[in-house]
From TrEMBL:
Residues 105-180 form the Beta-ketoacyl-[acyl-carrier-protein] synthase III N-terminal domain. GO terms for molecular function: 3-oxoacyl-[acyl-carrier-protein] synthase activity. Pathway: Lipid metabolism. Keywords: Fatty acid biosynthesis, Fatty acid metabolism, Lipid biosynthesis, Lipid metabolism, Membrane, Transferase, Transmembrane, Transmembrane helix. InterPro entries: ACP_syn_III_C (IPR013747), ACP_syn_III_N (IPR013751), FabH (IPR004655), Thiolase-like (IPR016039). Residues 239-325 form the Beta-ketoacyl-[acyl-carrier-protein] synthase III C-terminal domain. The chain crosses the membrane at residues 306-323. Coiled coil: none annotated. CDD domains: KAS_III. The lineage of its organism: Bacteria, Fusobacteriati, Fusobacteriota, Fusobacteriia, Fusobacteriales. It comes from Cetobacterium somerae ATCC BAA-474. Pfam families: ACP_syn_III, ACP_syn_III_C. This is 3-oxoacyl-[acyl-carrier-protein] synthase 3. GO terms for biological process: fatty acid biosynthetic process.
Length: 325
């Protein structure tokens, strides 16, 4: 197998926003939000940035581990909300951690970003013989949503999650199989324009609205349920592990109803899915690693456990990773 996760970390903003806080600015209620999403709280940045959250999530990986920093040869940051395009968020992480001779880059696959980043990291670490690597997923969704739009404002939160990867050729733990895919978003169910398309020579009407996340909830839900089903089935079929042997499934935390429907369709007990959407809402690329960190730090995993990381996002992208802890 070779590449395994040896440590996890996370960082969320200081400010917690409850459903009752949203009642004050939106036509909604705590009961309505919980019933449709499973969300109770989310964390929203006030002074934090994408880079600061990512750095602190990565620092957590190293604070209790006697890691030779010279072995860290790769940092990949999955984000669609970089606070700087140049330098990249990953370059700023490297600088803060005082690492030398380290490959760094950012990728954007929306909410699927963390899965794609881990897959890329695994391949690079094997091909380039990199001993240690860091993958961080981080997004500040509060900057993207229209806070007058109940359909998106209630769903998202900010946060970062990270993993420390280790590569040893003869390791009997680690990534077993990976499935990644994409289908065309012909109905524009998830879209977000960026402000860089504005120039002095074009005339963009409703400019503020133009640069906000647009989501067609029912269409996204239908896609997401199918994406989870396909990804889990595919990653199992690519391995010699049975679904019954899986200890936990860590899904992208987008909506409680999506996870419940996928579990029902696959005939998987709901308690096999690790769910924390109630506490953090949808943190996009941070979602899966934040949940994985909670699962790990709760001492619910032991060596040899099989787990599946599964997600989906804009594009429309989706996938899963099966690994042995």
């Amino acid at each position: 197998m070779g590449v395994q996760i040896i440590e996890t970390g996370k960082k969320v903003p200081y400010k917690k926003i409850t459903n009752f806080d949203l009642e004050k600015i939106l036509d909604t209620t705590d009961e309505w939000i919980q019933d449709r999403t499973g969300i109770i709280n989310r964390y929203i940045c006030t002074v934090e940035t994408t880079t600061s959250l990512a750095i602190e999530a990565c620092q957590e990986l190293l604070k209790e581990n006697n890691i030779n920093l010279s072995e860290i040869g790769l940092i990949i940051c999955a984000t669609m909300t970089p606070d700087t395009l140049i330098p990249t968020v990953s370059a700023n992480i490297k600088k803060n951690l005082k690492l030398n001779h380290c490959i760094v880059f950012d990728i954007n696959v929306a909410c699927s970003g963390f899965l794609y980043a881990v897959s890329v990291a695994e391949s690079m670490m094997k091909n380039l013989n990199i001993k240690k690597g860091i993958v961080v997923g981080v997004d500040l969704n509060s900057q993207l949503v229209d806070w007058n739009d109940r359909g998106t404002a209630i769903v998202f939160g900010d946060g970062a999650g990270s993993v420390l990867l280790s590569y040893e050729k003869n390791n009997d733990s680690g990534i077993i199989s990976t499935f990644l895919d994409n289908i065309d978003d012909n109905e524009n169910s998830l879209t977000l324009k960026n402000s860089y398309c504005k120039t002095p020579f074009n005339n963009l009407e409703n400019e503020l609205e133009f640069f906000k996340l647009k989501m067609l909830g029912p269409k996204v839900m239908k896609f997401a349920i199918n994406a989870i089903n396909t990804s889990i089935s595919s990653v199992i079929n690519l391995s010699k592990v049975s679904l019954d042997e899986i200890k936990y499934i860590v899904p992208h935390q987008a909506n409680q109803r999506i996870i419940d429907a996928a579990a029902k369709n696959l005939k998987i007990p709901r308690d096999k899915f690790y769910i924390n959407i109630d506490s953090y809402a949808n943190t996009s690329a941070g979602s899966i690693p934040i949940a994985l960190d909670e699962l790990n730090k709760s001492n619910l995993l032991k060596k040899g456990d099989y787990i599946i990381l599964v997600g989906f996002g804009g594009g429309l992208s989706f996938g899963a990773i099966l690994l042995k802890w």
